[in-house]
Amino acid sequence: MTLKLIESAALLIALCWLHALNMRHVQRQLLRKLLAGGLFGAICVVGMLAPLTLQEGLIFDARTVVLSMAGLFGGPLVAAIAGLMAGAYRLWLGGVGVIPGLFNILMPVLLGLAYRTACLHNWLRIGVWQLLLFGALVHLLLVLSLSLLPAQDFGQALQQVAVPILLVLTPATLLLGLLLQDIYRQASDRQALRESEARLRAISEASPDLTLVLDEEGRYLEVMAPDPQLLHGGAEGLVGKRLADVLAVGQAEKFMALIARTLASDSPQTLEYGLRTPAGQRVFEGRARRLDTPLQGKRAVVVIARDITDRVNFELDRRIAAIAFESQQGMLITDASTRILKVNRAFCQISGYSAAEAIGQTTRMLNSGRQGPEFYQAMWQTLSETGIWEGEVWNRRKNGEVFPEWLAISAVCDERGRVSNYVASLTDISERKSAEEKIKHLAFYDALTGLPNRRLLRDRLQQARALSRRSGQHAALVFLDLDNFKNVNDLYGHQVGDELLCQVAERLRHSLRERDTVARLGGDEFVVMLEGLEIRAEEAASQVEQLGAKVLEALRQPYLAGGHSLFSSASLGVVLFNDDQHSVDELMQRADLSMYTAKAAGKNALSFYDPQMQEAVSTRLQLEADMRRGLQSGEFLLYLQPQLDQQGGLTGAEALVRWQHPQRGLLAPGAFIGIAERCGLIESLDMQVLGAACELLAQWAQQPHSAGLSLSVNLSARLLYQAGFVEALQQTLQHSGANPQRLKLELTETLLLADMDEAIVRMQALRGMGIRFSIDDFGTGYSSMAYLQQLPLDQLKIDQSFTRELPGNPSSLAIVRAIIALAQSLKLEVIAEGVETRAQRDSLLSNGCLHYQGYLFARPMAVADFAAADLFRPRLAESL
Ligand code: C2E
Ligand code: CA
Ligand code: CA
């Protein structure tokens, strides 16, 4: 009996061992199952060959154990094969036990499959107790199946085998179950390992990265390279070699250090390295991780190396681009609609805008407005045709300063060829410009004084000739030579001489108008060119003469040079022109010639090339001298012209000055007012007239018939704007005791318009004193309601040019009517001057003008005649 049990145990162990071999070496699922089924079946058959035989045909063996485990571990196919083999053999054996024998094949198979199903559904587990209970159940059923035997056999069988079956086969089931569980677990572990290895391999082969397994000595254990081009000598050749055999010394050392670092650390370590591969020099980034278990007895690491050449190159490009972007040039990147996306530091320095201020704006913010829309249109045209544009542009800095820049724009297109961005580089060329300017200056300007040189003068003279021909206005070329300058140079040296010349240049510049040209030809020779002079030659000559006098006066003042107080006068030679009949050279020669004439005439003088001019100027100079004297000796007299109302009643008079010239007799203002204005005598002349007028008013106030009369006095612009005029007039009024209410000042529109604001201030001050105002020659200027309303006015005086044309000329009539309507709307009195005929007066009266002055009533007359005239009675009108 014991021997039988040992035999059975040996059989089971053999089963397990064969099973393990099958599981390990047979890879194909189906074959493995067939073989497993065969094995289980064969063991059953072998078991039945040496059974515990109770009697012929009644055998006991371990088939229930084997078949139940075949069902549990092998599944339906395995169990079916084993069951069929065992069943077939049992049938062949035959005997009394054949029915229970077959039952004991089918029952463990089904129970095993049921247990298996329960396990697959997680209802049961395979464990010691479960197997023990299962074994007990199977063998209890086996014992019960003995009842299928004939009754006498059953009793014997029960008696003999029931206990051993239960006691031996139940633990045997447990034992076999545990052994098979282990074998199956190992097999499935191996399978899982194989699968995961395959998966890993697939992953590492699919990845572009290089995977290396290296041991602690730097030996290649495994190499997986998707692209063998990335390796030295192919993946296979490497395995077994050491790093030092493959890599250069420094490189291998770096790797050994990486391995050491990785082995010492729990976290992955990285290394960037360059490698010459068959595909060229590449850059790799290695990430190394320690393996938890030693390989071949040595600690090892896995290194995944990624080819980062492209990334590194891109990074490098980016850095180069960034550095290039931050160059000396201002850089600007915009989108297609010129909205600024990015600027560099140089741009900020040039433009004055910070990056934050610039980004998001359009490039229009830089526009200076110096270049018109046509300029930008042409620029965009070129850009859209060629993709690039380059040129000089005037832009505006944040502080408003306009500056020149050299601008280069490139359009950047996307894959579809549409402009996506513009890249602009700009260089501030203001310095270059100013250098250019300087060069130009050197070419056209005198280095010592900064005045235009001969070349520029000739250029301007050329232009002036053309211009004067077109406009008819005269221009003058004035040569100027310092008298005795040579002495200064000889006595005090060139340095002092140069200083003096600079001061002369300065004085010349100051004493001339903005539009005049002052040039230096060299040495002590200067040239002045005056443009836009009067059309009439004599008048132009006198303008030049006045400017010349101013210049001579300025140059005659003492100079302070090199610590010396120096004196120098100059001689001027003038040639006038108002056409291009004479060449530049001719004009220069003539001016030069007349300059020598001036020198010959005794220096500090001005001489005209044209003798007629010389004559005219001399006469004028004489008149001016006479006027000075005449003002001193009271040669200027007051003439009065009466002013009347519509009934012919005298309302006052206009004071008109006359000059009682000792040689030339009584002169009307036309002969001297102009000169007085130009030579600066008009102020004193007008003050004299005002003084006399005030005296007269004071006298009139004494007489009842004249006490109500007013006196109009003409006032020149120069006097109105003269400093202290208001106070001077106030004094004159107080001194004379005249009533300011009776004084009326006549001003012309052009006079007022010269400096409207100042005129208003002064007129209001005078108005405050009681003085009244009339606008003279009204209608000939640029009258506008706007200015009339601002002025403290009392009267408009219709100019005689309109009166003269009345009543026949419809346009004059229209103007007169308009003036009257304007005066009425502004509540101003209106008076007409130059009334010579009754028809004129009637026309004026019928249109609403109620005050008159003119030859019809009286000519201007001396004060004594005015007093003697029978003017103070209203019947004057009836007498006409
Ligand atoms: P005005 O202020 O327009 O003076 C009117 C001028 O017309 C006067 O010329 C006067 O004699 C003249 N006149 C008067 N009635 C008639 C007439 O019925 N027919 C014609 N054809 N002429 C008439 P006058 O006295 O020769 O003065 C000329 C200009 O000189 C004045 O023009 C005025 O602008 C200026 N003037 C006169 N006296 C002074 C003065 O004391 N100071 C200033 N700054 N200018 C004065
Ligand atoms: Ca007047
Ligand atoms: Ca007038």
| Second CATH tier, the architecture of the largest domain | Alpha-Beta Barrel
Please identify the structural class as seen in this structure: alpha+beta
Number of strands: 29
Assigned CATH class of the largest domain: Alpha Beta
CATH superfamily of the largest domain: EAL domain
- Which small compounds were modeled alongside the protein? ligand C2E, calcium ion
Low-confidence stretches: 874-880
Helix content: 40-55%
Task: Provide a short characterization of the protein structure.
This protein is an alpha+beta fold.
How do the strands and helices of this protein lay out in sequence?
Layout: H1 2-25, H2 29-49, E1 52-55, E2 58-60, H3 63-93, H4 98-120, H5 128-145, H6 151-206, E3 210-215, E4 220-224, H7 235-238, H8 243-246, H9 249-264, E5 269-277, E6 280-290, E7 300-307, H10 309-325, E8 330-335, E9 340-343, H11 345-351, H12 355-358, H13 373-386, E10 388-396, E11 402-413, E12 419-428, H14 430-444, H15 454-471, E13 474-482, H16 485-492, H17 494-511, E14 517-522, E15 525-533, H18 537-556, E16 559-561, E17 564-566, E18 570-577, H19 584-600, E19 606-608, H20 611-632, E20 636-645, E21 650-661, E22 665-667, H21 673-678, H22 682-702, E23 710-714, H23 717-721, H24 725-736, E24 743-748, H25 749-754, H26 756-769, E25 772-778, H27 785-790, E26 795-798, H28 800-804, H29 810-825, E27 829-832, H30 838-846, E28 851-852, E29 861-862, H31 863-868, H32 876-879
Parallel strand pairs: 18-19, 21-23, 23-24, 24-25, 25-26, 26-27, 27-28
Antiparallel strand pairs: 1-2, 3-4, 3-7, 5-6, 6-7, 8-9, 8-12, 10-11, 11-12, 13-15, 13-18, 14-15, 16-17, 20-21, 20-28, 20-29, 21-22
